[in-house]
Design a protein that fits this description.
This protein is α/β, with parallel strands linked by helices. The chain folds into 3 domains: 3-116, Methylthiotransferase, N-terminal domain (Rossmann fold); 136-361, tm_1862 like domain (pyruvate-formate lyase- activating enzyme, Alpha-Beta Horseshoe), CATH 3.80.30; 369-420, OB fold (Dihydrolipoamide Acetyltransferase, E2P). 35% of the residues lie in helices and 22% in strands. It has 13 helices and 19 strands. The protein has helices at 12-27, 51-64, 74-78, 80-86, 101-109, 154-158, 166-178, 202-210, 228-238, 257-262, 269-282, 301-314, 340-363; strands at 3-8, 31-32, 41-46, 69-73, 91-93, 115-116, 136-140, 142-143, 162-163, 183-187, 217-220, 247-249, 287-294, 318-323, 369-378, 381-385, 391-394, 403-411, 416-420. Strands 2-1-3-4-5-6 form a 6-stranded parallel β-sheet, with helices on both faces. A 5-stranded mixed beta barrel has the order 15-16-17-19-18. A 3-stranded parallel β-sheet has the order 7-10-11, sandwiched between helices. The protein starts with a strand and ends with a strand. The mean pLDDT is 90.
């Protein structure tokens, strides 16, 4: 029996993988360590979406390699040679190789490096897990995607779309609720294409999960705009339910159709605008989150200005901003890159714009009063979410998983500040 420390970085799917790895550790007769200094073996579940993230991963791998180490997640699958440069003795576990978790752990503890990067036939639905947050159940609904984006390594790591069966997902959500979760995240590489490979779709899944007769609320995770025309009418209909957060994460990436074509995104700026407009027509208060990449190799100043214009027109509530970074193995990495100083300038312009948009969006909530589910502990205290998934901080003493009526008294760029009134 060994003490094993597991840590994760990146998207909600990575954190879900780490929860399942921790569950398999306990099922295998080992125990979990609270930190790397107390462990016999370390497991790091990695992300490789951006250069800055990958560099952080490499630094962390280097700091953990004094003990037996397993590097799991996307990075070893996408950049095996780079990982081995930083830790040649580390075992490697791919994002779709969780079926070999205990085998890799036991080999590594015995001093034998093992590489398990091939996909296994083990579904991630129904695996034991140790939750990072007892209030939130993260349920992976699929692995891989149908896209071929020229800037993204995720396809290299996770492969083609493989959706899990609707009934299995519903049973997993029931388990999460039975074990105390008040909030369920439906997550995958791209929720928008869920079920296309097995004869179903995301709206059908959302409807099925929302029919579970318990007190909980669902966050539907990221979906790319390219698949929205096929599901948007039924999806918007499925959101007309008190059990669904009024929240969509739809990464547009650019306001330029030329750049989107060069990225092989499969959608236009108009696709994104149509979704935003339809949602706002149907729901008075709805949070739209999107992603923007600044400095893609073919983004001229003219194309960049189209992104500025798109943001001004659609006014998303949340924008995740990234500088383009050339990821090894991607098509876009082979193109001539834009000068770093120019990318930095453009990033600053967009950052100022989205800060203004976020502030305007949040200020509209001052004076709102309603139910808030407190679902996250941060360094600054406890934080909750209202029906539109707006982050709300309070100074009152509250426990995770509790719901209270809160009045919003202040707004910042990143969150709302409230006080409990019941």
């Amino acid at each position: 029996m060994a003490k094993i420390f597991v840590e994760a970085y990146g998207c909600s799917a990575s954190f879900a993988d780490s929860e399942m790895i921790s569950g398999l550790v306990l099922n295998g007769g080992h125990t979990l360590a609270d930190n790397s200094s107390d462990s016999d073996l370390n497991v790091i579940v990695t992300c490789s979406v951006k250069d800055s993230t990958a560099n952080k991963m490499m630094y962390r791998i280097n700091s953990l390699k004094s003990k037996p180490l397993i590097v799991a997640g996307c990075l070893p699958k996408a950049e095996k040679e780079n990982v081995e440069k930083f830790s040649e003795n580390a075992s490697l576990l791919g994002p779709n190789s969780l079926g070999k978790t205990l085998q890799v752990i036991n080999s590594t503890l015995e001093g034998r490096k093992q590489i398990a990067l091939e996909d296994t036939d083990l579904s991630k639905i129904g695996l034991p897990k140790v939750r990072l947050n007892p209030t939130v159940g993260i349920v992976e609904i699929a692995s891989g995607c149908m896209s071929e984006c020229t800037f993204c390594q995720t396809k290299l790591s996770k492969g083609d779309l493989s959706s899990y069966r609707l009934g299995d997902i519903v049973r997993q959500v029931q388990t999460e609720i039975k074990e105390g979760c008040k909030e369920v995240w439906l997550t995958s590489t791209d929720n928008g294409c869920y079920g296309f490979d097995i004869g179903t779709d995301l709206p059908s899944l959302v409807n099925a999960v929302s029919e579970i007769p318990d007190d909980f609320i669902i966050r539907v995770g990221m979906m790319n705009p390219m698949y929205m025309p096929r599901i948007k009418e039924n999806l918007i209909e499925s959101f007309d339910n008190d059990k669904i957060f009024k929240f969509l994460h739809i990464p547009v990436q650019s306001g330029s159709d030329k750049v989107l074509n060069d990225m092989k995104r499969g959608h236009t700026s108009g696709t994104f605008m149509e979704i935003v407009n339809k949602v706002k027509e149907r729901f008075a208060d709805f949070t739209i989150s999107t992603d923007i990449i600044v400095g893609f190799p073919t983004e001229t100043e003219k194309e960049f200005q189209k992104t500025i214009a798109l943001l001004d027109e659609t006014k998303p509530d949340v924008v995740n901003l990234s500088k383009y970074s050339a990821r090894p193995g991607t098509d876009a990495a082979k193109l001539d890159q834009i000068d770093a100083a120019e990318v930095k300038r453009r990033t600053k312009v967009v950052f100022e714009q989205i800060s203004k948009l976020s502030m305007e969006s949040n200020e509209k909530w001052i004076g709102w009063k309603g139910r808030v589910l407190f679902d996250e502990m941060t360094d600054e205290g406890i934080k909750g979410r209202n029906f539109a998934y707006k982050p709300i901080a309070v100074k009152d003493k509250v426990e995770l998983g509790q719901s209270h009526t809160v009045e919003i008294i202040e707004a910042t760029v990143k969150r709302l500040i409230g006080k409990i009134v019941s």
